[in-house]
Design brief:
This protein is an alpha/beta fold. It folds into two domains: about 230 residues, 3-Layer(aba) Sandwich (Aspartate Aminotransferase, domain 2), CATH 3.40.640.10; about 130 residues, Aspartate Aminotransferase, domain 1, CATH 3.90.1150.10. The chain is built from 13 helices and 13 strands. The strands form four sheets. The protein has a seven-stranded mixed β-sheet, with helices on both faces. It has a two-stranded antiparallel sheet with strand order 6-7. Helix 6 links the parallel strand 4 and strand 5. Helix 2 runs parallel beside helix 8 and helix 3 packs parallel to helix 4. It is globular. The two termini are about 30 Å apart. The model has no long low-confidence stretch (mean pLDDT about 100).
Length: about 375
């Protein structure tokens, strides 16, 4: 039986040819393809300024710099995300302040944010886990009341929406990822959507060593920027992906709906919220009933792999990593994030999957969980 990965990018022949054309052109780094990609991203975001980058992490780093986060500042975020969400705060010299998740959405519990705000709080980084958007109305209500900046870690929610508006087409700073496992990929890459055109010059300096070039060939550097620019090779992939975004999103929603139809709810697993309007269904994640299983999550994953089905873990709780324990975080502080993080598994979901693939995954889960039920 063919191995079923938990994700697989969909790259058509026209995109492969476009990459070949870039390679033959001799212009491999940031150039005309990057400019074209940014223009199309801007159009998708309602005309807002968008700057491409070499990762979603870079987008978060630059966003923090643009709002002048300094050592000693505090940034509120979720403990259930890819560790980059918190690492960028630490790298800026600021303190990540974790707030537990809502066990139903698995996103940051917006009702707990106010209690975490102190005089040092400067911003909130909200994460759209698995592509399910955080409630933007409540989020910005809190931010506006307390005069905080918002960085939307929308790494997983490209193509998702809130209130009928595309994520990224409104709000404060919005960071997207185009990593290989994302709904739209450039291989590696990302972008930052800016709320104010006045930020564009600084964003451009920060993404490429702080350099400003003059028409006569001279240059100046007045800030220490990084090396975060996207290549034309990556942009060519992104340009090939964009026309298929609606198709990709719709297909993911159809597959997710089929999971809900076929997954045996008597197995005791916690399923995600069945949102088919806003979520882009970047991932379909269940939480295993570990207390009622005779095997560990690792053994469950191994048994799925033995059936040629890949399963991912997204994500371990950030505050339990050694780096964050050293900052004073301990087990038991965020029980909902710890519960979900301990049992969560990501099942296969990507546009070229078939309904029979979904049924195969659901059957495998049922077989294993029935065998090991306590």
């Amino acid at each position: 039986m063919e191995f079923l990965p938990f994700t697989r990018p969909t790259i058509d022949e026209a995109t492969i040819q476009a990459v070949s054309d870039v390679l033959r052109s001799g212009w491999l780094t940031s150039g005309p393809k990057v400019q074209a990609f940014e223009a199309q991203l801007s159009a998708l975001m309602g005309g807002r300024d968008v700057r491409s980058l070499n990762s979603g992490t870079a987008a978060l780093e630059i966003a923090l710099d643009l709002i002048d986060i300094q050592p000693g500042d505090e940034v509120i975020t979720t403990p259930l995300s890819w560790v980059a969400t918190a690492n960028v705060i630490v790298l800026a010299g600021a303190k990540p302040v974790f707030v537990d998740i809502d066990p139903h959405t698995r996103n940051i519990d917006l009702n707990l944010i106010a209690a975490a705000i102190t005089p040092r709080t400067r911003a909130i980084i909200a994460v759209d886990l698995a592509g399910l958007p955080v409630d933007r109305d409540v989020l910005y209500g809190i931010a506006n009341k307390h005069q905080l900046r918002v960085i939307e870690d929308a790494a997983q929610s490209f193509g998702a929406s809130w209130g009928g508006r595309s994520i990224g087409s409104f709000g404060d700073l919005v960071a997207f990822s185009f990593h290989a496992n994302k709904n739209l990929t450039t291989g590696e890459g990302g972008c930052l959507v800016l709320p104010d055109s006045a930020m564009v010059p600084m964003c451009e300096k920060l993404r490429l060593q702080g350099v400003v070039r003059a028409a006569d060939g001279t240059m100046e550097v007045d800030v220490a920027g990084g090396k975060f620019n996207l290549t034309d090779i990556a942009a060519a992939i992104g340009l090939g992906q964009l026309p298929h975004l609606t198709e990709f999103t719709q297909r993911r929603r159809e597959l997710a709906q089929h999971y809900f139809t076929k997954f045996d709810t008597s197995l005791g697993c916690e399923l995600p919220i069945a949102n088919f309007t806003d979520s882009n269904w970047h991932m379909f994640q269940i939480v295993l009933p570990l207390a009622h299983m005779s095997i560990s999550r690792g053994e469950f994953i191994a048994r799925m792999k033995a059936r040629d089905i890949a399963v991912g873990v997204h994500y371990p709780p950030i505050h339990l990593f050694k780096l964050y324990r050293a900052l004073g975080y301990t087990e038991g502080q965020f029980p909902h994030a710890e519960h979900v993080g301990a049992g969560i598994v990501t099942l296969p979901l990507f546009p070229t999957m078939t309904q029979s693939d979904v049924e195969r995954v659901c059957s495998a889960c049922a077989e294993i969980l029935t065998e090991v039920k306590l």
